[in-house]
């Protein structure tokens, strides 16, 4: 089976997690990190999940799964140690057209969760289509070593530069040329060294003379 790669905007959306162990805890933490509202169903709860419930960060629906819990939900994760229950949750979600992931049960999934490397706004997803999560993990560790925090800094810088350039009304080919030149210029490597002077000097060489980059540099660097 092949999967179509896609990044979802979860901000403000509600996710239902069924299960309360360590796997469910990790799923909940990731969903919260990406802005989802989380409801959880489980007979037992890991201490961290209890803390999140007590703090009002997630909503506890009870110990037994009910069909009404699918209402007003965008996606579902079945993360119990009961394969039969995970399958039932999957069937209920599918019948309502909801996205569902059943942990370690690819046949019961409409989506699978990749291994993720995240450096600020840079996100790299690795998937083996469920064939070898261990390989995904190995590749993720390699990429984490390859892509450092300088990539997060670079994208923060580019957000300001891109906004400034586009407001100047230059031809699209000229903007594209400058964007590509910035990427290939060595600025990322300079950020990794903490060499702010080289960053500033390089940008001044590439960008139009009339563009004031100092406020952007002051804010982002």
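-> sequence recovered:
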């Amino acid at each position: 089976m092949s999967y179509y790669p896609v990044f979802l905007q979860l901000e403000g959306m509600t996710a239902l997690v069924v299960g309360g162990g360590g796997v469910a805890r990790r799923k909940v933490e990731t969903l919260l990190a990406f802005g989802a509202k989380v409801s959880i169903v489980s007979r037992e709860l890991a201490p961290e999940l209890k803390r999140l419930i007590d703090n009002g960060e997630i909503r506890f629906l009870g110990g037994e799964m009910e069909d009404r819990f699918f209402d007003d939900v965008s996606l579902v994760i079945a993360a119990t140690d009961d394969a039969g229950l995970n399958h039932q949750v999957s069937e209920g979600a599918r019948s309502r057209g909801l996205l569902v992931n059943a942990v370690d049960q690819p046949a019961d999934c409409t989506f699978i969760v990749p291994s993720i490397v995240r450096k600020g706004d840079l996100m790299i997803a690795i998937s083996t289509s469920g064939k070898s999560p261990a390989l995904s993990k190995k590749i993720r560790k390699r990429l984490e070593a390859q892509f450092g925090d300088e990539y997060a800094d670079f994208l923060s810088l580019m957000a300001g530069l891109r906004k400034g350039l586009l407001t100047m009304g230059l031809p699209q080919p000229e903007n594209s040329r400058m964007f590509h030149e910035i990427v290939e210029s060595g600025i990322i490597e300079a950020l990794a060294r903490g060499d702010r002077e080289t960053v500033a000097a390089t940008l001044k060489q590439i960008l139009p003379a009339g563009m004031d980059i100092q406020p952007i540099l002051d804010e982002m660097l």
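Strands lie at 14-18, 37-41, 59-62, 75-78, 99-102, 115-119, 122-126.
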